[in-house]
Amino acid sequence: MKTIKTLSYLVIVSLFFSCSQQKKLVEFSIKNTQDFERSFEIVEIKNSALKIDNINSIGIKDVKTGKLLVTQLVDTNGDGTMDELLFQPKIAAKTIANFEVVLVNETEKPKAADLCFSRFVPERTDDYTWENNKVAFRVYGPVAQQMIEENIKGGTLSSGVDAWLKRVEYPIINKWYKETLVDKTGSYHEDTGEGLDDFHVGVSRGVGGIAVKIDSIYYFSKNYTKWRTITTGPLRTSFYLEYENWDAAGNKISESKIISLDLGNNLTKFTTNIDGTNSISAGLTLHEKDGEVTRNNENGWVSYWQPHADSELGTAIIADKNTFKGFEKYDVKAKDLSNAYAHLQVKNNTVIYYAGFGWKKSNQFANKKEWEDYLTKFSKQINNPLEVTFK
Where would you tag: which of 56, 232, 303, 335 has the fewest CB atoms within 10 A of its CB? Predict the structure, then answer.
């Protein structure tokens, strides 16, 4: 048997010539080695591995149930050709499940709402905002930075990550911006049952913004300068951000990243490309410093659980065991510069980590323990990925 990374030329050639002759193209299995069900993890099948003329014409069938799964096609490089197919299987604890790649008509594909969404927001200066059915975030662009530098009211100077606290599973980004900025019938700073934006970022790291530590000082970039939406859909949204080179005590730092958020997850994935340093620190703002910083070095996470208005809020950074190198509670007098930092190792100019939040008022997590249990489970998932094997 060959894994997805080593799919043999014999299988590829056979697959290529059989596409028009049979509905089933290839079989594969997915193994869950953990003692809990895996149901909100994306499996990616690369078109380069399948070598199919038209990836738009395939689907994924669960052999046990005979049902087609919801899939999403992604053009990762923006050249107009779909590069990979995403799906989200449900795999019971310590189980191997079997699947088939099959030819399907467009009408046969199961439909699902596009709950994973992101977009550039020119009507609110130049935010970039993203969400799924659990959480929402935003970051700030160059016009917002320029407004601050030119003393124009309404700007924002920050490379921190803002959290939008939502209480509903349906999309709220377009609705909240429209009500607040276009129709002026409401404000996303007020909770009318769907949630609100009352999470202060300032120059802090917010939920997962990065810094480079030199001696005892943390340095970080300004606002993003370029953006590109990669995909939105029922299973994942992802996009690209680029930053102007920035200085860390004489070291020139070059930074860009791909940010993605999958259905059902409270944590968004940051794949950061960075030059000029062999380590970074991803931070969580400490706000009023009235919460509790906890960490789990074994499972590679740092968390901050805090009172928040009339509720409570947990934020966190998670990375795999080979990336997570420790943490620091950085507490200073300067406004917004106190953060809980996860120290992360850069490898081949790349570092991958996850950051996100859980709001008690959304009824997703009742208390700090439930939030930390979720983080430990999520850590086990990223350190023990689902094993995909083609037959």
Answer: 335
The answer to whether 160 touches 201, Cβ cutoff 8 Å, is yes
Number of domains in the chain: 2
Q: Report yes or no on 388 lying in a domain.
A: no
d(CA 247, CA 183): 41
Cα–Cα distance, 125 to 154 (Å, whole number): 8
Burial of 17 (0-12, 13-18, 19+ CB in 10 A): exposed
pLDDT (0 to 100) of residue 17: 36
- What single letter denotes the amino acid at residue 232? T
254-275 per-residue burial string, b: 16 or more CB within 10 A, e: under 16: bbbbbbbbbbbbbbbbbebbbe
Structural domain for 92, as ranges: 2-111
Q: Which of the 8 DSSP states describes residue 383?
A: H
pLDDT at 139: 98
Residues 76 and 131 both lie in one domain: no
Asked if residues 293 and 334 have their Cβ atoms less than 8 Å apart, the reply is no
64-98 per-position pLDDT tens digit: 999 999 999 999 999 999 999 999 999 999 999 99
Which CATH number does the domain housing residue 13 bear?
Answer: 2.60.40.1180
What does the pLDDT look like over 7-23, one tens digit per residue? 333 233 333 333 333 37
Same domain, 76 and 144: no
Asked if pLDDT for residue 368 goes beyond 50, the answer is yes
Distances (CA, A) of 58 to 21, 88, 250, 291, 317: 14, 15, 52, 49, 36
289 lies in the same domain as 372: yes
For residue 259, give the CATH number of its domain.
2.70.98
Q: Do 100 and 177 reside in the same domain of the chain? A: no
One-letter amino acid identity for 331? D
Contact 315, 383 (CB under 8 A): no
Question: Rounded to whole angstroms, how far apart are CA atoms 216 and 341?
Answer: 13
Question: Residue 370 is inside which H or E element, if any?
Answer: helix 368-383
Q: Give the tens place of pLDDT for each residue, 294-324.
A: 999 999 999 999 999 999 999 999 999 999 9
Does 288 fall in a domain? yes
Whether residues 261 and 312 share a domain: the answer is yes
